[in-house]
TrEMBL record, chains A, B, C, D:
Recorded catalytic activity of this chain's protein: prephenate + H(+) = 3-phenylpyruvate + CO2 + H2O
Record-listed E.C. numbers: 4.2.1.51
Recorded superkingdom: Bacteria
GO molecular function list: prephenate dehydratase activity
Organism: Actinotalea lenta
Span of domain ACT: 201-279
NCBIfam families linked to this entry: PRK11898.1
Pathway participation: Amino-acid biosynthesis; L-phenylalanine biosynthesis; phenylpyruvate from prephenate: step 1/1
Signal sequence residues: none
UniProt keyword list: Amino-acid biosynthesis, Aromatic amino acid biosynthesis, Lyase, Phenylalanine biosynthesis
InterPro entries: ACT-like_dom_sf, ACT_dom, Chor_mutase/pphenate_deHydtase, Preph_deHydtase, Preph_deHydtase_CS
Prephenate dehydratase domain ranges (all copies): 4-186
Protein name in UniProt: Prephenate dehydratase
Pfam families associated with the record: ACT, PDT
Amino acid sequence: MSARYAYLGPAGTFTEAALRQVAAPDEATYLPQVDVVAAIEAVRTGSADYAVVAIENSVEGGVTAVLDALAVGDPLVVLREMLVPVTFTLAARPGTALADVRRISAHPHAWAQCRHWLADHLPGVVHVPATSNTAPAALLAGERTDLGFDAALVPPPAVQHYGLAVVAEHVSDNESAVTRFVLVGRPGRLPEPTGADKTTLVVHLPSNQAGALLEMLEQFSTRGVNLSRIESRPIGDSLGRYSFSIDAEGHLADERMAEALMGLHRVCPHVRFLGSYPRVDAPYGDVRPGTSDADFRDARAWVTALREASAT
Amino acid sequence: MSARYAYLGPAGTFTEAALRQVAAPDEATYLPQVDVVAAIEAVRTGSADYAVVAIENSVEGGVTAVLDALAVGDPLVVLREMLVPVTFTLAARPGTALADVRRISAHPHAWAQCRHWLADHLPGVVHVPATSNTAPAALLAGERTDLGFDAALVPPPAVQHYGLAVVAEHVSDNESAVTRFVLVGRPGRLPEPTGADKTTLVVHLPSNQAGALLEMLEQFSTRGVNLSRIESRPIGDSLGRYSFSIDAEGHLADERMAEALMGLHRVCPHVRFLGSYPRVDAPYGDVRPGTSDADFRDARAWVTALREASAT
Amino acid sequence: MSARYAYLGPAGTFTEAALRQVAAPDEATYLPQVDVVAAIEAVRTGSADYAVVAIENSVEGGVTAVLDALAVGDPLVVLREMLVPVTFTLAARPGTALADVRRISAHPHAWAQCRHWLADHLPGVVHVPATSNTAPAALLAGERTDLGFDAALVPPPAVQHYGLAVVAEHVSDNESAVTRFVLVGRPGRLPEPTGADKTTLVVHLPSNQAGALLEMLEQFSTRGVNLSRIESRPIGDSLGRYSFSIDAEGHLADERMAEALMGLHRVCPHVRFLGSYPRVDAPYGDVRPGTSDADFRDARAWVTALREASAT
Amino acid sequence: MSARYAYLGPAGTFTEAALRQVAAPDEATYLPQVDVVAAIEAVRTGSADYAVVAIENSVEGGVTAVLDALAVGDPLVVLREMLVPVTFTLAARPGTALADVRRISAHPHAWAQCRHWLADHLPGVVHVPATSNTAPAALLAGERTDLGFDAALVPPPAVQHYGLAVVAEHVSDNESAVTRFVLVGRPGRLPEPTGADKTTLVVHLPSNQAGALLEMLEQFSTRGVNLSRIESRPIGDSLGRYSFSIDAEGHLADERMAEALMGLHRVCPHVRFLGSYPRVDAPYGDVRPGTSDADFRDARAWVTALREASAT
């Protein structure tokens, strides 16, 4: 049986583009879901093997919901991350020229991201709000003639899927925008360390004192572990207590990460490990002097020798 | 002319409930918008005086978009924050009893938040996904009889607005869930300090080194300023650089906050001040010894005396 | 053969009082030395088994010399610490009454420590400087009659040793003053941990940046290890580089101390271990939550389980 | 009347060499004292205008006593620092050749510093301990013929003063050794800032917790102030409380130093300012970005503008 992947559907979403990086449609079972929480729950209940969900900067939303859904409930781990460029295509029914476009259907987020291009190339064009990035594509693909709009801003994968014609490509104002997605599965063998990995954690602090936050972060910095993402989330059960969702550079198999996690476990009331996996966006910076695996081994050997000298 | 408030509409949203805490509908002009970015832009362009937008933990989404929209563009400031309980009401057309309900329309976020209640009280009930929290209310208020559902999970304000009947109240699994909203306006006179205030900032770091983050946070802790929220956001222009959205306890008028901001201004490549305003959710903890305004004045007087002794 | 102890002589010094806490004169060989460096070198060359030297706050001086002598050369370790109250006795030849005393011989440090008592009880008395605390005792014990003074401020042990008479006891202005001495030997079995121990270290920093010092100290604080003494010493070979002599609370056998030493070994160019031994002056404060041996073991077990889960 | 300088005498000491850097003997009144405490007290009582005392690494001892004497009592300030090379000359009566030397008188510290040179050039030579660096010079200058030694290790200034002959110069093993001395006076106009200054402080901590020490040090590092010396000293009145003697880079007139002192004043139970004065040993490292006076002024102007905007 091919692996089953739950994701935010329908076809043509940026999330689907992320999923295609993991498994081609003909080699896997795609299970579109109505939202990210449903995608995650599908893995927990066993109706899917994996979920693909946005975890940072998504134009489809749901990132906060993803973080919260992973933070509680049955343990899941991140196995891989995928970047998807967030660009939009101005699409229409075949035969539509740019000069014909008077009214554009677009999700408000999409509209906002193309605002300057539209002002430059289609001054005066009217925005017809859509409820998702793919809804106007589906309408254009249908039979209705009273759509009330001539074209739509859609994710590039939706163009082919819905058989649309391209009016203009790369109409986003910031062509380098990307959304980060992750592949989530049930705990098991972690991906092998690659030398450029990322570890995702949820950590609770006992209070919202700045001192408590610094003490927690020192558990990383003392071992030379950099962070690439940190977000505080209020803990529902009590005012003034915070949970932190953290991406740290390195793999559980790295000595510095293992010692940092030990430190967090000792001083924080709750730590959840959400996986170590290859990072896709950038190679590491250099490992800080004194924090390589060899440095840790040397240090341990030195202390062991001191202790054994004391036992002879 | 009454003040004009842009907000995420339509009527009946949680955002509208937040707006009602600021100004009653008969004393103000409510300007519903298709999304939070549009609400914020309405203030920048002058088509509204204020915007009400979610800033933390919203079930209506858009929080990330709010943070990003405030972080760049013409300066705006937060003037006030409002908490709205996020509870749901199971509503239907008049005459519908709980036992009659077979199919429920609900936004997936709403469905997720009521999952346990529904499993207990309506085992086997079918979920009909909705595109927003108010869309099914509007449908129930209409004439159509082929809705495909018997009831809907809606925000409490939507019940009255759409003339619906309550089937069951307080059906959320976590009755203490709240979303935090803020009132945003153009810069001008800040709200007076109340002794329990909050200051919102956007701060850029030069790198993603853990050391750089600690150095930035020490600018707060050294002056005894606690944080109540911190979120990293990637800066679009470059890999590995981060922006932090921060809520800190205290007011710009407090000495410790002013000195912390001076410190941030000195060591960070970019700091944006997004307002000081009364916090609504909790009183302060005690001010840490040595960080009251009087302590700062005493310290300054001591140094001034040392310097002047040297000048006599 | 009884153990041989090198110490700052002659008989009657405070150092000898410290040595008596370790071994009675009839069970050990006392080897008085002209100074603390000679005492330490006697152990290195094998002409003594142990040395007793002052390490903090001595009125006989030499503390800096002790720290420097232990920091370089063949490794030695501290095995025990001893506190000696630094009080003075006003002593004279038998038959001398307080009212007879016109001129007092005293080492300048001794004089300084008794200044107020003397002003109160012997106004106008003349100070005859002595070159050590025991030199005037030896003179009083001799035959000469032209000493030029009537009495002397001497350590209490010198009174009996030199057969003097007590004119007044406890004449120091600060009766709680103590000097800390240590017993030094060649490396071997460390003293057993007692639950209230101290570890002495020499640590070099790569630069005199405040950041470098903080980074070094965080290696302790991150593991909940408190310091009870820290002294910077310039490193002779280069301007602006510093060595730190440190006493930390805890024993090498404690997990938190072992991990802190590993951290120092990784990030500092040089770390010398100078022993773990029972502290004599005060019981511990409570161990900080999360830093007991059990906490470290639990944390290690958790990380090991995470890693092994990844290997199944 | 020429200025009166108290110092550790007699003539020929390293301290006198330090004093000569400040004022030539024919332009000032030299007041030799029996020890450093007496020198400092002479300024407090008004019998001297200034004192010259060793403050770091002295071979004549007394450094701890200096730190303690400045830390309490009537306020004094450091006005200047002077470095004196600590080299020794092997001196004798005229006509003595190196080959004639069988027995050398030397203070034990001096002997220790010349140990290797002596082993190389005078193997088997006998050490005759002296009580100070100048005592054997005085004996050689006298009439006695039964000295019991042929030569002495003395500070270079003592050679000429006592009319001795040089047998060998630069006999110290470490020719770059220096001792740091300071000129101490009563509070008044501080020396002008030079761009390479030093500020000396005494700071008490409320406890010996590592966290308390870090918090204190962050008051410096947060403002980019480096330390060049730190020494903990037990506070006599209570176990486990510490005083720190600190040299920090910069002048009270520097903004970063002023703000750091304000921070210390706020969070520490006691801070004593012991002067800002030109440092003699090394130019500054570069000022850390963001911590120049201009950076502080810009930051203050920015906060002031934010506050005033709020008042318009």
